[in-house]
C-alpha cells in the first residue's frame, strides 16, 4: 500500500508540477508535504484531503490508498459546462409558454425540480462517459 506522500508525489509528477506548487495553489504550507515525506505525519486533515482530491480530480479514498484506480470525478471545467447547459435549459423552460404539468401551468417549484433532475442526469452522464471513453493509458493507478 502506498503512503499518502507517494500518492501525492505521483499525482504531481503526472501533472508535471512540484509538490511545492501544489501547496502554493491550495494555500498550504510547504511543510505540510515535507512532514509527510519525512514521516512526521502519516495523513492530513479531512479539509486538506478534500482540497487535494478536488485539485487532482481523484477521490479521498484514492489519496489514502484505499482505491487502486482513480475514479473519475468532475473537474471545474465539467462543472462549468454543466452549469451552462442548465442555464440554457432554464431559459428554454422560462420562455416556453403553455408548458403544463398535470394540466396546470408549470410552477417555479416544478421548474426547479426539473432543473435539479437534469443536473443529476448530466453529472452522471459526464462521469459515465469519462469512465467509458478515457483511454487506459491515462488511467493510472
From TrEMBL:
Pfam families: HTH_26. It comes from the Bacteria. Residues 8-63 form the HTH cro/C1-type domain. Coiled coil: none annotated. SMART domains: HTH_XRE. One of its GO terms (molecular function) is DNA binding. This is XRE family transcriptional regulator. It comes from Neobittarella massiliensis.
Amino acid at each position: 500500500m502506498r503512503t499518502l506522500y507517494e500518492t501525492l508525489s505521483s499525482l504531481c509528477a503526472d501533472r508535471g508540477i512540484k509538490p511545492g506548487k501544489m501547496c502554493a495553489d491550495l494555500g498550504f504550507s510547504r511543510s505540510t508535504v515535507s512532514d509527510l515525506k519525512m514521516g512526521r505525519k502519516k495523513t492530513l486533515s479531512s479539509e486538506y484531503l478534500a482540497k487535494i482530491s478536488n485539485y487532482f480530480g481523484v477521490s479521498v479514498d484514492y489519496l489514502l490508498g484505499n482505491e487502486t484506480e482513480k475514479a473519475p470525478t468532475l473537474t471545474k471545467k465539467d462543472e462549468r459546462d454543466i452549469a451552462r447547459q442548465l442555464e440554457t435549459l432554464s431559459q428554454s423552460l422560462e420562455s416556453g409558454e403553455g408548458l403544463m404539468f398535470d394540466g396546470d401551468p408549470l410552477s417555479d417549484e416544478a421548474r426547479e425540480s426539473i432543473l435539479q433532475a437534469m443536473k443529476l442526469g448530466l453529472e452522471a452522464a459526464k462521469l459515465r462517459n469519462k469512465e467509458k471513453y478515457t483511454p487506459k493509458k491515462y488511467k493510472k493507478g
